Give the backbone structure.
Amino acid sequence: MILSEEWKQTTAAFSSFLSSLDNIRESVKQKQTEFEDHCTTLNNKMEQAHKRSGSSEDNKIVTLNIGGKKFQTSQDTLLSVHESFFWCMLHSGDWKPDEEHGEYFIDRSAIVFPLILESLRQQQPVPTE
C-alpha cells in the first residue's frame, strides 16, 4: 500500500510537471509568433526604405565639403558599397547636409578624397600606392 500511495504521488507530480511544460510550450509558441510578426514588420519597413533610397528620384547630386574643398557625386555612388562609411551615414538618418549650403561636411583632408571617390565609382579598392 505504501508503494501504491507513493506511486500516486509521483504520478500526480509528473502530471503537474507535464502540465507546466505544456503551459511553457504554449507561451513560447505565442512569443515566437509575436517575434516573427515583429520581424516581418521590420523587414517590410526595411524593404520600403531600400526601395525609396534606390529610386531614381532619390538619386540626386550630393555635394560633399571635404576639408573645405567641394566634391559632387551621385547619391548612388555614395551608396554603391554596402555598409561603407557613406552608406552607413546616409542610411542612419542622422547625417544631414548643412542647412545653409546643402553640403555634407567631412573634416578630413581633401588630398586623397578623389581616390576614394573614384574607387566608389569604379567599385574597386582604394589604391594604396
